[in-house]
Amino acid sequence: MSFMKTLLLCVTLLFASQFSHAQIDEEPSPPPVPKKVIQPYEIFESAGFKGVSVNGEVKIKPIYKSIKSLRQKGYVSAKSEEGWFLFSTTGKMVSPTAYSEIKDVFRIASYFSNGKKCPSRYNDTPKTSTLFEVTQDGLIGVIDEKGKLLIPIEYDELSRYTAKKDGMWGAIDVNNDILIPFEYEDIGGFKMSNLAVAKKGGKQGVIDVNGNAIVPMNYEALDFFGNDYLKIKENSKWKLITYDGKQFLPGAYDKLIQRTTGLFQVEVNGKIGIFDKEGKELLRPEYENLSPYIDNHFIVQKGNRVGVYHPDNGWVIPFSYSEIYPCGMRNVPLLIAKKNGKNGVIDLKDNIILPFEYDHIDELENGFARVQKNGKWGFVELNLDGKSFKVAVDFIYDKLESYTVGLMEFEKNSERGYLVWAHRTRTIEVSKVLKPD
Fold first, then answer.
1. What pLDDT was estimated at residue 221?
2. From CA 160, how far away is CA 195, in angstroms rounded?
3. Which backbone phi and psi does 273 adopt, to 5 degrees?
4. What CA dihedral angle connects 86, 92, 93 and 94, to 10 degrees?
5. Is 246 helix (H, G, I), strand (E, B) or coil?
6. Contact 168, 184 (CB under 8 A)
7. pLDDT at position 186
8. What is the pLDDT of residue 18?
């Protein structure tokens, strides 16, 4: 092949390649829409009337009784003799209609759902437009940023997920189509499962976002209990059931509480018991008081005696004490206890950390506790090992009371004065002695 033929072939292929690429290239993307810049504005007053200016230029003339900023950026509401009007801060009157009230719609989500599904609490429909709640003659509707009426002004209330009309609750979407019929006396907030407690005919049940009855309206009262159970009330007693209606705990109770550890606390005739998360009874309801403590322990009172229980280890401290309460320092597993009229400190294995020889022991603060022994006051300090105490201030004071932060007022025989409590250096020293009056 001659040199000229070769050159001509290469040029032809080059043009063909460029033409081919030009045919398959996508259409150029449209230029990005410039982001709307909202200038800062100022509400000003002139001759007793309000207006709006931007960078010193008047945008809304000062002819209104009041002007309120709205959370939707770039909009304000202005009040005249006729009522409230919606303005953009550029000075444009968005809606020539006067309303008795104009508010933002941030708190409402139910009727902004996509299709027939109400959004969950943590997955609200994206805000595709700027919306405002308006009121006339005591009824509520919704307009958009152009003043167009999206939701007719015919509702008593518009909540985050539901609407109230003629005294009954239901749900609508942004087109005012009914998602849930207006036939309920009440509808609670929808949970992440898109279920809500509803009331109809004086009885409560559970509905989904489309108004389908998941649990029939048969109960005096009903509430969600964690993620897996429902608490229902029948004959003034509470029961725990699953969503398919099966009873989970065996009895009927005056009170039902779910602890953060997953345990269930029940109460019958003023007596408290515990079930585990599998529904097994751990403590029969025969105890007067039960208080959670660290590492899943419980301080339990039965009659006039107190002990400590752990679901896995049973009774770690027997009913040997008339009082037990936390030491006051977070994550320090010590307890202040009372036995035979004297106070001491024990750990969660019932080991004695501070002997039972004190008339009174305050809760620990930064490792210190004010204590009384044989009628005299002093301080003890928790050693760094957390397993023993030492005397920080001898028991020589007739009176030792908090005066202000870091300062204790004392009386000793005929002397009065102050002790300084230095947290950083973990010391307590006599600051000042006052002469007798």
1. 93
2. 14
3. -140, 175
4. -60
5. coil
6. yes
7. 95
8. 44
Tokens of 369: 């506790």
CB neighbours of residue 437 within 10 Å: 4
Strand partners of residue 284: none
Other CB atoms closer than 10 Å to residue 430's CB: what's the count? 14
Please choose, from the candidates 192, 186, 272, 187, the residue with its C-alpha nearest in 3D space to the C-alpha of residue 226.
192
Return the pLDDT at 431. Answer: 67
Q: Which amino acid is at 91?
A: G
Phi, psi at residue 316, to the nearest 5°? -85, -25
Total length of the chain: 437
The helix/strand count (H/E) of the chain reads as 1, 42
Do the Cβ atoms of 266 and 279 come closer than 8 Å? Answer: no
16 CB-near residues (< 8 Å, 6+ apart): none
- Residue 125's pLDDT is what? 40
Return d(Cα 338, Cα 344) in angstroms, integer.
6
Q: What integer pLDDT is reported at residue 177 of this predicted model?
A: 86
pLDDT of 72-107, one tens digit each? 889 999 999 999 999 999 999 998 999 999 998 754
Phi, psi of 343 (to 5 degrees): -105, 145
| Residue 7 main-chain phi, psi, to 5 deg | -60, -40
Whole-prediction pTM value? 0.67
Point out the residues of the chain with pLDDT beneath 50.
1, 3-26, 33, 107-128, 436-437
